[in-house]
Amino acid sequence: MTAAQTAAPRRGGCRMTRALDGGARGPRAKDGAKGDAMDNAMDAMGAMGAMDEGERGSATVVGVAAVLALLAVFGIALQLGAAVITRHRAEAAADLAALAAASKAVSGTPAACAAAHRVADHMAARITSCELHGWEASVRVEATPAGALARFGTARATARAGPAVAGSATDRDARRAVGRQR
User: Fold this and answer.
1) For residue range 116-152, what is the model confidence (pLDDT) as tens digits?
2) Domain ranges of the chain
3) Cβ-proximal residues to 112 (8 Å cutoff; 6+ apart), any chain
């Protein structure tokens, strides 16, 4: 394209401009035949929106693909959330079962582990190991996630509970904390 061609203004402009000022469809309006600028504008808009036959419906396909991608991301997020909740449930069940076992340590290992089993059952978890060493209870728990995540495995947690040993670092820290509060 030469400089003269680029400098010369195009005659008629776009279809919409020609329609509004009586360009492409103007003879009908100029001849005194009925017609107004709005009809001409609507005709021009129809002509502007015309696509090749191969492109018809392509926006629908793209829209459906975007919705499916969004649903897939949402489904993955839900499953990930369910896995995190299962892990938290296993940890809570282990903590509470260990506390229940430690509270029954005076009655012996069978009573302590029975208390731990009751707590774990109420929290939809399963105890895999329950041991009592002196006054300290150690419990291992498994929780299975619901739904499709069950096939990927279980969440496991371990917890210990028992009295603080006099003179231990934990006991000294607890005494300092109580002393500061007074």
Assistant:
1) 999 999 999 999 999 998 889 999 999 988 777 777 7
2) 11-44, 80-181
3) 100, 101, 102, 104, 105, 130, 132, 137
Please state, in angstroms and rounded to a whole number, the distance separating the CA atoms of residues 159 and 85: 18
Distance CA 148, CA 78 (A): 11
The count of C-alpha atoms lying within 13 angstroms of the C-alpha of 95, restricted to the half-sphere facing its C-beta, is 6
CA distance 37 to 9: 23
pLDDT digits (tens, 9 = 90+) for 73-107: 998 888 888 888 999 999 999 999 999 999 998 88
83: which 2 tokens?
């896995």
Kindly report the pTM of this predicted structure.
0.56
What is the separation of C-alpha 48 from the centre of its chain, rounded to a whole number of angstroms? 41
* Higher-confidence position of 11 and 146: 146
Tokens 């904390």 found at: 177
Owner of token pair 């709005």:
38
With CA atoms as reference, report the closest residue to 157 among 137, 176, 139, 130. 139
> How far is it, in rounded angstroms, from Cα 79 to Cα 149?
7
Residues present in the chain in total: 182
Q: Which of 162, 165, 164, 98 is nearest to 136 (CA)?
A: 162
